[in-house]
Amino acid sequence: MLLDGSLGRLARNLRMFGIDAEMETQDLDYLIGRAQKEGRILLTRRTVGPERIPATVKVVRIQEDHPERQVVSVLKWLGSPIPKAEWFSRCLLCNRLLEEVPSTSVEGKVPDYILLVHSHFRLCGGCGRVYWPGTHRTNMEGRMERWALEAWGDLSGKKRGRGGSGGERA
């Protein structure tokens, strides 16, 4: 997905679920062109006239104002639950896929105490940020589970159709 610059918090929240959610601050014509070139879905808060959108570009207009409502509306639109194994697979800052790494490779990049109490680490090859399953992640998982239940009703993997409330085809 490609998100316009007004949806930065939504991009971060979608990345928590492992969704490829890149944010771009360029003008709308650039965003539409890039979405077409890369085969991405464009999420925007802007009103887009149908005459500006090539038939090959899917644009979803985000109508919700509140960031939590935005993420629920996109999850509903996606339709199918995202397996928990895919959660936390992307860097929250730069959107790159994370790589599982041994604790020895993050020495000097995390506090010594973290190395003593955690054994699972993920590293972003783009920005170098290190992630581990601490209390912050536990808090994030609680929010994510609440959003997932609201969007999908359960996490069993049942297929649902695309096109939930809060987002519309521009």
Describe the 3D structure:
The chain has helices at 8-16, 28-38, 67-78, 112-117, 135-152, and strands spanning 2-4, 22-24, 42-44, 59-62, 98-101, 121-124, 130-131, 167-169. It is α/β, with parallel strands linked by helices. The chain has one domain (2-169). The protein has a 5-stranded mixed sheet with strand order 2-1-3-4-8, sandwiched between helices. It has a 3-stranded antiparallel sheet with strand order 5-6-7, with no helix packed on it. Strand 1 (2-4), helix 1 and strand 2 form a beta-alpha-beta unit. Helix 1 (8-16) crosses helix 3 (67-78) and helix 3 crosses helix 5 (135-152). The longest helix is centred in the C-terminal third of the chain and has 18 residues, at 135-152. The chain is globular, with a radius of gyration of 17 Å. The protein starts with a strand and ends with a strand. 30% of the residues are buried.
